[in-house]
Amino acid sequence: EIVRGESEEASNGVNLMEFSDEILLHILSYVPCTDLVLNVRRTCRKLATLCLDKSLTHTVLLQKDYKVNKDKVKQLMRDIGKEIYQLNMAGCYWLPSSTIDHVTRCKNLVKLNLSGCHVTSLRLSKMLSTLQHLRSLAIDVNPGFDASQLSSECKATLSRVSELKQTLYTPSYGVVPCCTSLEKLLLYFEILDRSREGFMLSGQLMVGESNVPHYQNLRVFYARLAPGYVNQEVVRLYLAVLSDRTPENLHAFLISAPGSFAETGATKNLLDSMARNVRLDALQLPKAWINGSGLLQHLKFNNPFYFSFSRCTLSGGHLIQRVINGGKDLKSLTSLNLSGCVHCLAPESLFRKAEDDIDSSILENLVVSCCNLRHLNLSAAHHHSSESIGNHLCQLLSRLKHLLSLALPVCSITDIAANVEKPPTASNLVPQTFGRKVRIGIQTYPRNFADQANQKIESSVFWALMGSLRFLETLEIIGSSFSSAMPRNEPAIRNSLPPCVRAQSVGDSEVAAISQLTYLQSLTLAQLPNILTGSGLINIGLQCQHLRTLSLANLGMMGKVVYMSALMDMLKHCKCLRDLRLEQPYFCAGAQFFQALSHCSSLQRLCIVSRSGTLQSDAVMSFMANCLEVIMCHMFMGESLTVCKNLQQSIVRSFQADRPALNVVIFPLLHEDLTEVIRDVPMRHLDEITLFKSRVAEEPPNLWW
């Protein structure tokens, strides 16, 4: 395309090849490496030289190059293997395990990410035996992994690895005991409690895995657990070594565990040792380890950049006294996760109800002390502002000018003064459940930004907040009582809790305010009860031209999709949209919807979750044929199992050959075998889009490259 454009540009006096090498290298840096090496460099002599420049071949990223296949990887390694120092193949689930054999050509590799790739212990041994310069490694440990099959050369390479990321699908130490120089260890526990045959699994390690990890040089320890008791059993085995001797250089200790993860004598000894011997820069602990303990009072911090107290009963008083410490040491904090901390903005939690007003002085202290925050999560709690002028949560947060990502509960953005002044309208009194059918006539929502602005007083606190956070890239507005119908390891949720009373007035005008975020890339809206037409979505489609990820769930009344027309108008403007997730009961995925969605020329992943929802098979097939970039189609609807299976088979049969990464799951949402289907979804898709969750400040920034 570059060369073909020369003739067109020549008539205008502009020739791309006349640009300086520096400019051309910058342009080429946006082209996938496989295209550079296998296609672009064959067009002319100048590009042949530039495409092999070290700045373009030093780091090769294949993790979201969904068009790459085994033959392309083989040719790529053959052409530039010796020039590659960093190779990221994370999530390339579609590549056969034999593809890994070609990595041995990259003799100078320093960093290698194979998370989500199929790698046996024998293949891993053969590959690592040749990578003597490797210092950073990410792999999966699947059932059947046997550390005794690793050769002495492989173990020698592992002994020099200082950074290891390991995703466990079976109880095992993996390669950790071989990594005697570890400084950073990231562990992801995805072990299921039951086998496919229904047998209960044990958290005991496999026979022959008596070797213990070496943590003496460890600086970062991170563990993320999926639901299940087996994951808890296995992580305790990893922690047992830490409790015996805490590394002196440990500066980040993070454990993310859902549900209840009880503290034991060993973990208590570990925390006591940490309080005595280390100064931390990043901290995340299970809620049971923090609740009711004086741990935070004794831990010492150096220059903290990340705190997560998700789901803890930490009160605002304790937060100020024990963590913020009067603002003396928190200028370095860039990421803070307080999701589910229902009392974190109140002085005490003993006699307080979760719905009571927040203490604005605590939030103000937090904002002043942590003035450099870039990522803040306050979701999954009722943060109700009082009627005091100038002390609304949105007004205080507007001072955080460096914010890049923000998660808030719906009830926190309510403009109290506006609600007091205006009497409830008929639309406010409509129950947010299953409403009666209404006649569909001429659309009454405004067609442009100016009309919407005229309907909403732009002096509202949320409108002002959005106007002050001009560089925000990620925004999540999630109902404090919202829970997704999409399960992880349990049946689909059939009933949802009603929205907070304070959230009843949040609707189209608040959504329109979001359109001020010119640089917005990711948007999540869940359980906004007063959505009447969805008109604000059109404003977002027009103004937020960088939007790449959109997730909408339970907007407006639950009995019908009131925002469908506006959504279809919005999608026509979303040229950069790559990921779309929709969760709404009674959603009709028909011809009109898919025709509008076909305007999203960059779309790669689609997920629809709809109890009692319907779909038109012909419309889905036509959409897949028109949108050539789509490689993931997940639909969990109300259709029969036969309809779902036939459509899934048709999509795979028609498009798998041209789209090697194609992953299709179409299944009844309330079917008893849904959890079995979910376990086969590639972790990349499951974690990033299929399962609903708040992702702001979920992990420390730049945890892994």
From TrEMBL:
The protein's name: F-box/LRR-repeat protein 18
UniProt xrefs under InterPro entries: F-box-like_dom_sf (IPR036047), F-box_dom (IPR001810), FBXL18_F-box (IPR047948), FBXL18_LRR (IPR045627), LRR_dom_sf (IPR032675)
Organism, scientific name: Cariama cristata (Red-legged seriema)
Any one Gene Ontology cellular component term annotated for this protein: SCF ubiquitin ligase complex
Lineage: superkingdom: Eukaryota
Gene3D superfamilies recorded: 1.20.1280.50, Ribonuclease Inhibitor
Listed PROSITE patterns: FBOX (PS50181)
Lineage: Eukaryota, Metazoa, Chordata, Craniata, Vertebrata
Stretches assigned to the F-box domain: 13-60
